[in-house]
């Protein structure tokens, strides 16, 4: 999911009425239709797949964005992509408020939360690199495509190390685009199938869902909570804590562990491919890698809206989210109004803090602040939790996924240009990262719980 903020400092998103208000209206309509349809369970052999409003929102938004009759203008799609970052902070604020009350229970899962990043790294590299290089003959593009699920910071790492014209970067871009378009759906289907088959526990699946993309995490945990509604808050709290760990360690693990490991394994798989008759770019040797930390490109938001513009944007989408809450819960409680204002304030404060502490992702700030306010030792925890208790978390994410869907049309050509081989590898990377992190979490919960 793209979280790149549309470049604008001097002009507010609200002043760009053609783009902002069009996108806002479409997001409201798409989210409202999705929420009105409600969850649907599809039984498939011995498993079941939960279809949720957040999935409908991605699909419907993508249809609106990509359809040929009157496609959404590219500037409006860019606006939708730029709105994802501030609006998703509201969802993350509500998610963080679930962690505080669960702190004691999360302590027993601390080993799993810390070790799940190992599963993300080794799942994508060890299992997917041979598929990319040996079976599909992607050559150097396989390095970029498999060293991580390639969210924005990881694209920055690859761009710095290899350059924007290198095969490694094109491979990373392919995984990024496929993850943006299909990631939430893939994660939801995987979580539904694995959860219904009983292969892994719901706790392990929730931890494994923190692959570094909030939309993928939301899709996976949303599917799990539909299957295990009584554990909803606990599962979301686990995934939120795991996401916080990934937010802090993910870029560093990718730059200093996953990428060097991928480069070290690449020559071996190239030799295997050559013995099987692969030639040309499929067996291309490694070039020298550029010097650098691998983190300079992690910050993609070089030009950001002003904090005043961000506050106005949050205010407008607060109304959109409130409407979707009414559709989801069929009620409007007075406390919900106060709870929504609280979430908007937490989101704005977190974004403001991250502007001054550039090394700290705003998602981490949001969840840390929300966790502290809702922790048992917080004097205001009771009041805050009372305000947000009736806010449906999954419904809060529906407008976010609608924005993601509305921004996807601009990626269609790039997705087609990536070729079917990169699409196959990207889907495999997402699945392997999720499943391996879940397996590590399951083992940790079984043997390392305190």
Short description:
With 450 residues, this protein is an all-alpha fold. It is 72% helix and 2% strand.
Characterise this structure:
- The chain has 450 residues and is mostly helical.
- The chain has one domain.
- It has helices at 17-37, 53-66, 74-99, 103-107, 110-135, 141-146, 152-162, 167-197, 202-208, 214-227, 232-275, 307-329, 334-356, 362-374, 381-388, 393-406, 412-447; strands at residues 40-44, 47-51.
- The protein has a two-stranded antiparallel sheet with strand order 1-2.
- Helix 3 crosses helix 12.
- The radius of gyration is 21 Å and the shape is globular.
Write the layout of secondary structure elements.
Layout: H1 17-37, E1 40-44, E2 47-51, H2 53-66, H3 74-99, H4 103-107, H5 110-135, H6 141-146, H7 152-162, H8 167-197, H9 202-208, H10 214-227, H11 232-275, H12 307-329, H13 334-356, H14 362-374, H15 381-388, H16 393-406, H17 412-447
Helix pairs in contact: 1-2, 1-3, 1-12, 1-16, 2-16, 3-11, 3-12, 3-13, 3-14, 3-16, 5-11, 5-17, 7-8, 8-10, 8-17, 9-11, 9-17, 10-11, 11-14, 12-13, 12-16, 13-14, 13-15
